[in-house]
Amino acid sequence: MSTYSVSTPLATLGQVIFSVFTFGLKYLLKGTIFKLLILTAFLFAVSVFGSMMISMLPEFLSDSFIKSYVDSLPPGLNYFFKMAALDFGLPLLISAHTARFTIRRLPIIG
Length: 110
What we know:
By secondary structure, the chain is mostly helical. The protein folds into 2 domains: 8-48; 57-110, no CATH class. It is built from 4 helices and no strands. Helix 1 packs across helix 4 and helix 2 packs antiparallel against helix 4 (86-104).
């Protein structure tokens, strides 16, 4: 007479919870936190190098020059430029293109 016996015992509830917890922690560490740290380092590098590149721009691309240029336009044209907010938008556009140029040069993103 042979009886069926299980060679390995069933996992206890504590072992199952521990296994699920370790799986979730591995997933977070590998998939989320590591990527968050890498992207934070890239953001820091781009912001530091971007500010250095903007400080190296020639004088005619500075914010004060662009604002004074917009203010020196004739009143009829100045009205439409003020409505389009070019005194704010032009420096924003220049810095956005500079950031895009810098990010495109990164070998991982490029």
